[in-house]
Predict the 3D structure of the following.
Amino acid sequence: TYRFFASLQTDAYLASDVVDSDAPNRTLSGFSYRVFPQAGVDWRLPLARKDGRFTQIVEPMVGIILAPDGKNTDRIPNEDSINFEFDDTNLFSRNRFGGIDRVEGGPRVNYGLSSGVFGLGGGFSSFFIGQSYRLDESDDFGADSGLDEHFSDIVGRIRVRPGRHVDALYRFRLGKDDFTARRNEVSASMGAPWLRLQIDYLSIDQQNLIDSQDPQDDFRDREEIALALHSEITDRWKIGASTRRDLNSGGGSLRHRLFFSYEDDCFEFRTDYSRTFTRDRDVAPTDTILFRVVLKTLGEVQTSSGVN
Protein backbone atom coordinates (compact mmCIF):
# COMPACT_ATOMS: atom_id res chain seq x y z
CA THR A 1 0.00 0.00 0.00
CA TYR A 2 1.05 3.57 -0.71
CA ARG A 3 0.19 6.67 1.30
CA PHE A 4 1.15 10.09 -0.04
CA PHE A 5 1.29 13.19 2.14
CA ALA A 6 2.13 16.88 1.95
CA SER A 7 2.19 19.59 4.61
CA LEU A 8 3.14 23.22 5.15
CA GLN A 9 4.24 24.52 8.54
CA THR A 10 4.57 28.26 9.17
CA ASP A 11 6.00 29.75 12.36
CA ALA A 12 6.55 33.28 13.61
CA TYR A 13 8.68 34.17 16.65
CA LEU A 14 9.37 37.34 18.56
CA ALA A 15 12.30 36.55 20.84
CA SER A 16 14.95 38.34 22.85
CA ASP A 17 18.32 37.41 24.34
CA VAL A 18 18.72 34.20 22.34
CA VAL A 19 22.29 32.85 22.48
CA ASP A 20 24.14 32.98 19.15
CA SER A 21 25.84 29.60 18.61
CA ASP A 22 28.54 31.23 16.45
CA ALA A 23 29.37 33.73 19.21
CA PRO A 24 28.18 32.46 22.62
CA ASN A 25 28.90 35.82 24.25
CA ARG A 26 26.44 37.52 21.90
CA THR A 27 22.64 37.36 21.96
CA LEU A 28 20.05 37.80 19.23
CA SER A 29 16.69 39.56 19.44
CA GLY A 30 13.86 40.42 17.09
CA PHE A 31 11.20 38.95 14.83
CA SER A 32 11.79 35.84 12.73
CA TYR A 33 9.63 33.48 10.71
CA ARG A 34 9.87 30.10 9.04
CA VAL A 35 8.02 28.43 6.16
CA PHE A 36 8.62 24.68 6.07
CA PRO A 37 7.02 22.45 3.39
CA GLN A 38 7.17 18.67 3.43
CA ALA A 39 6.04 15.96 1.03
CA GLY A 40 6.58 12.26 0.76
CA VAL A 41 5.22 8.76 0.48
CA ASP A 42 5.00 5.75 2.80
CA TRP A 43 4.99 2.22 1.38
CA ARG A 44 4.17 -0.99 3.21
CA LEU A 45 3.60 -4.55 2.02
CA PRO A 46 2.24 -6.87 4.74
CA LEU A 47 2.61 -10.55 3.85
CA ALA A 48 0.73 -13.12 5.94
CA ARG A 49 0.81 -16.92 6.08
CA LYS A 50 -1.31 -19.13 8.31
CA ASP A 51 0.16 -22.36 9.64
CA GLY A 52 -2.20 -24.30 11.88
CA ARG A 53 -2.79 -22.33 15.07
CA PHE A 54 -0.29 -19.62 14.14
CA THR A 55 -0.22 -16.72 11.70
CA GLN A 56 3.11 -15.38 10.45
CA ILE A 57 3.35 -11.78 9.21
CA VAL A 58 6.30 -10.11 7.47
CA GLU A 59 6.02 -6.42 6.54
CA PRO A 60 8.75 -4.45 4.75
CA MET A 61 8.25 -0.69 4.89
CA VAL A 62 9.84 2.37 3.29
CA GLY A 63 9.21 6.07 3.80
CA ILE A 64 10.55 8.86 1.57
CA ILE A 65 10.43 12.46 2.82
CA LEU A 66 11.37 15.57 0.82
CA ALA A 67 11.93 18.80 2.74
CA PRO A 68 14.26 21.82 2.56
CA ASP A 69 17.26 21.97 4.85
CA GLY A 70 18.61 24.83 6.96
CA LYS A 71 15.32 26.01 8.48
CA ASN A 72 16.59 25.99 12.08
CA THR A 73 18.26 29.29 12.91
CA ASP A 74 19.60 30.73 16.14
CA ARG A 75 16.99 33.48 15.98
CA ILE A 76 14.34 30.88 16.78
CA PRO A 77 14.84 29.82 20.41
CA ASN A 78 14.74 26.12 21.14
CA GLU A 79 12.61 25.54 24.22
CA ASP A 80 10.54 22.45 23.44
CA SER A 81 12.85 20.33 21.26
CA ILE A 82 15.94 20.01 23.44
CA ASN A 83 15.56 16.51 24.82
CA PHE A 84 15.80 14.06 21.95
CA GLU A 85 16.07 10.30 21.69
CA PHE A 86 16.21 8.40 18.40
CA ASP A 87 14.52 5.00 18.66
CA ASP A 88 12.15 2.61 16.92
CA THR A 89 9.07 4.65 17.82
CA ASN A 90 10.08 7.73 15.81
CA LEU A 91 12.05 6.17 12.93
CA PHE A 92 9.23 6.93 10.47
CA SER A 93 8.20 10.25 12.04
CA ARG A 94 8.10 13.30 9.78
CA ASN A 95 9.69 15.36 12.55
CA ARG A 96 11.66 13.46 15.17
CA PHE A 97 11.98 16.52 17.41
CA GLY A 98 9.50 16.50 20.26
CA GLY A 99 8.22 20.05 19.77
CA ILE A 100 7.81 22.69 17.07
CA ASP A 101 10.81 24.94 17.75
CA ARG A 102 12.99 22.67 15.61
CA VAL A 103 12.08 20.98 12.33
CA GLU A 104 13.80 18.05 10.67
CA GLY A 105 14.79 19.16 7.20
CA GLY A 106 16.54 17.57 4.27
CA PRO A 107 15.55 14.68 1.98
CA ARG A 108 15.75 11.26 3.62
CA VAL A 109 14.66 7.65 3.29
CA ASN A 110 13.49 5.53 6.22
CA TYR A 111 13.28 1.75 5.86
CA GLY A 112 12.55 -1.17 8.12
CA LEU A 113 11.24 -4.69 8.45
CA SER A 114 8.57 -5.91 10.86
CA SER A 115 7.81 -9.56 11.54
CA GLY A 116 5.67 -11.48 13.97
CA VAL A 117 4.08 -14.80 14.89
CA PHE A 118 0.59 -14.66 16.40
CA GLY A 119 -1.27 -17.53 18.07
CA LEU A 120 -5.00 -18.14 18.29
CA GLY A 121 -4.80 -17.99 22.09
CA GLY A 122 -3.58 -14.39 22.11
CA GLY A 123 0.14 -15.03 22.52
CA PHE A 124 2.60 -13.54 20.07
CA SER A 125 6.22 -12.71 19.32
CA SER A 126 7.24 -9.73 17.18
CA PHE A 127 10.40 -8.17 15.81
CA PHE A 128 11.26 -4.85 14.14
CA ILE A 129 14.50 -3.39 12.79
CA GLY A 130 15.08 -0.23 10.78
CA GLN A 131 17.42 2.55 9.73
CA SER A 132 17.37 5.95 8.05
CA TYR A 133 19.47 7.44 5.25
CA ARG A 134 19.87 11.20 4.92
CA LEU A 135 21.12 12.81 1.70
CA ASP A 136 23.04 15.51 3.61
CA GLU A 137 24.63 15.21 7.02
CA SER A 138 22.66 17.18 9.61
CA ASP A 139 23.97 19.72 12.11
CA ASP A 140 20.56 19.86 13.81
CA PHE A 141 21.16 16.68 15.79
CA GLY A 142 23.82 16.44 18.46
CA ALA A 143 26.89 14.24 18.25
CA ASP A 144 26.18 10.60 19.10
CA SER A 145 22.45 11.18 18.57
CA GLY A 146 22.44 8.47 15.91
CA LEU A 147 21.21 10.86 13.19
CA ASP A 148 24.13 13.23 12.64
CA GLU A 149 25.60 11.31 9.65
CA HIS A 150 24.24 10.04 6.32
CA PHE A 151 23.29 6.61 7.65
CA SER A 152 21.61 6.55 11.03
CA ASP A 153 22.14 4.08 13.82
CA ILE A 154 20.09 0.88 13.67
CA VAL A 155 17.01 0.77 15.90
CA GLY A 156 14.64 -2.03 16.71
CA ARG A 157 12.62 -3.97 19.23
CA ILE A 158 11.77 -7.55 20.17
CA ARG A 159 8.60 -8.41 22.07
CA VAL A 160 7.54 -11.78 23.43
CA ARG A 161 4.14 -12.34 25.02
CA PRO A 162 3.33 -16.05 25.30
CA GLY A 163 0.22 -15.32 27.36
CA ARG A 164 -1.50 -12.67 29.40
CA HIS A 165 0.64 -13.38 32.48
CA VAL A 166 4.06 -12.77 30.87
CA ASP A 167 5.13 -9.87 28.64
CA ALA A 168 8.75 -8.99 27.74
CA LEU A 169 10.04 -6.16 25.54
CA TYR A 170 13.60 -5.37 24.42
CA ARG A 171 14.37 -2.14 22.55
CA PHE A 172 17.79 -1.26 21.18
CA ARG A 173 19.88 1.21 19.20
CA LEU A 174 23.10 -0.05 17.64
CA GLY A 175 25.97 1.92 16.14
CA LYS A 176 25.86 1.68 12.36
CA ASP A 177 29.61 0.96 11.98
CA ASP A 178 30.47 -1.49 14.75
CA PHE A 179 26.99 -2.44 16.08
CA THR A 180 27.94 -1.18 19.53
CA ALA A 181 24.93 -0.94 21.82
CA ARG A 182 24.07 2.76 22.23
CA ARG A 183 20.78 2.11 23.98
CA ASN A 184 19.37 -0.97 25.70
CA GLU A 185 15.93 -1.01 27.26
CA VAL A 186 14.39 -4.12 28.79
CA SER A 187 10.91 -4.27 30.24
CA ALA A 188 9.23 -7.37 31.64
CA SER A 189 6.04 -7.95 33.58
CA MET A 190 4.72 -11.18 35.01
CA GLY A 191 1.95 -12.35 37.25
CA ALA A 192 -1.81 -12.21 37.58
CA PRO A 193 -3.84 -9.04 38.25
CA TRP A 194 -3.94 -9.81 41.97
CA LEU A 195 -0.10 -9.64 42.10
CA ARG A 196 2.00 -8.42 39.16
CA LEU A 197 5.73 -7.64 39.05
CA GLN A 198 7.23 -5.13 36.61
CA ILE A 199 10.99 -4.86 35.94
CA ASP A 200 12.53 -2.13 33.75
CA TYR A 201 16.20 -1.71 32.85
CA LEU A 202 17.65 1.19 30.85
CA SER A 203 21.17 1.79 29.57
CA ILE A 204 22.00 4.81 27.38
CA ASP A 205 25.38 5.82 26.00
CA GLN A 206 26.31 9.48 26.48
CA GLN A 207 24.39 11.82 24.19
CA ASN A 208 24.25 15.55 23.77
CA LEU A 209 21.21 17.76 24.02
CA ILE A 210 20.17 19.63 20.91
CA ASP A 211 21.24 23.27 20.66
CA SER A 212 22.34 23.41 24.29
CA GLN A 213 24.87 26.11 25.17
CA ASP A 214 25.50 24.73 28.66
CA PRO A 215 27.93 21.79 28.82
CA GLN A 216 26.34 20.75 32.10
CA ASP A 217 23.11 20.06 30.19
CA ASP A 218 24.56 17.08 28.31
CA PHE A 219 23.05 13.66 28.85
CA ARG A 220 25.42 11.53 30.88
CA ASP A 221 25.73 7.79 30.56
CA ARG A 222 22.62 6.35 32.16
CA GLU A 223 22.07 2.94 33.66
CA GLU A 224 18.95 2.50 35.74
CA ILE A 225 16.71 -0.25 37.03
CA ALA A 226 13.14 0.04 38.27
CA LEU A 227 10.99 -2.46 40.13
CA ALA A 228 7.24 -2.21 40.65
CA LEU A 229 4.71 -4.42 42.39
CA HIS A 230 0.97 -3.95 41.83
CA SER A 231 -2.03 -5.74 43.23
CA GLU A 232 -5.72 -5.55 42.37
CA ILE A 233 -6.99 -6.58 45.78
CA THR A 234 -10.56 -6.49 44.52
CA ASP A 235 -12.27 -5.11 41.42
CA ARG A 236 -12.29 -1.71 43.13
CA TRP A 237 -9.25 -1.58 45.40
CA LYS A 238 -5.67 -1.42 44.08
CA ILE A 239 -2.32 -0.97 45.78
CA GLY A 240 1.24 -0.74 44.51
CA ALA A 241 4.84 0.20 45.20
CA SER A 242 7.83 1.00 43.00
CA THR A 243 11.46 2.04 43.23
CA ARG A 244 14.03 3.31 40.71
CA ARG A 245 17.80 3.17 41.20
CA ASP A 246 20.82 4.61 39.39
CA LEU A 247 23.35 1.83 38.70
CA ASN A 248 26.22 4.12 37.69
CA SER A 249 29.21 4.55 39.97
CA GLY A 250 28.22 6.88 42.78
CA GLY A 251 24.55 6.44 41.98
CA GLY A 252 21.81 5.41 44.33
CA SER A 253 18.08 5.47 44.78
CA LEU A 254 16.25 7.91 42.51
CA ARG A 255 12.66 7.50 43.61
CA HIS A 256 10.40 5.45 45.89
CA ARG A 257 6.64 5.45 45.44
CA LEU A 258 3.55 3.99 47.15
CA PHE A 259 -0.09 4.30 46.13
CA PHE A 260 -3.53 2.92 46.77
CA SER A 261 -6.76 3.66 44.96
CA TYR A 262 -10.48 2.98 44.98
CA GLU A 263 -12.80 3.21 41.97
CA ASP A 264 -16.45 2.44 41.29
CA ASP A 265 -18.99 3.57 38.70
CA CYS A 266 -19.39 7.05 40.18
CA PHE A 267 -16.35 7.79 42.30
CA GLU A 268 -12.55 7.48 42.18
CA PHE A 269 -10.05 8.19 44.94
CA ARG A 270 -6.27 7.83 44.79
CA THR A 271 -3.42 8.59 47.19
CA ASP A 272 0.23 8.69 46.11
CA TYR A 273 3.32 9.07 48.25
CA SER A 274 6.69 9.54 46.55
CA ARG A 275 10.21 10.25 47.72
CA THR A 276 12.65 11.62 45.13
CA PHE A 277 16.39 11.64 45.80
CA THR A 278 17.46 13.94 42.95
CA ARG A 279 20.03 16.62 43.77
CA ASP A 280 20.78 19.22 41.10
CA ARG A 281 21.70 22.85 41.74
CA ASP A 282 18.70 24.18 43.69
CA VAL A 283 16.81 20.87 43.64
CA ALA A 284 16.83 18.85 46.86
CA PRO A 285 15.29 15.47 47.78
CA THR A 286 11.55 15.84 48.26
CA ASP A 287 8.65 13.94 49.81
CA THR A 288 5.31 14.42 48.06
CA ILE A 289 1.80 13.28 48.97
CA LEU A 290 -0.90 13.54 46.32
CA PHE A 291 -4.65 13.16 46.87
CA ARG A 292 -6.92 12.82 43.86
CA VAL A 293 -10.72 12.66 43.93
CA VAL A 294 -12.85 12.21 40.81
CA LEU A 295 -16.64 12.47 40.74
CA LYS A 296 -17.21 11.00 37.30
CA THR A 297 -20.37 12.96 36.60
CA LEU A 298 -19.08 16.28 37.99
CA GLY A 299 -15.32 16.67 37.74
CA GLU A 300 -11.98 16.21 39.45
CA VAL A 301 -10.20 17.67 42.47
CA GLN A 302 -6.60 16.99 43.42
CA THR A 303 -4.10 18.44 45.84
CA SER A 304 -0.50 17.68 46.70
CA SER A 305 1.90 18.58 49.46
CA GLY A 306 5.67 18.48 49.22
CA VAL A 307 8.22 18.59 52.02
CA ASN A 308 11.96 18.98 51.37
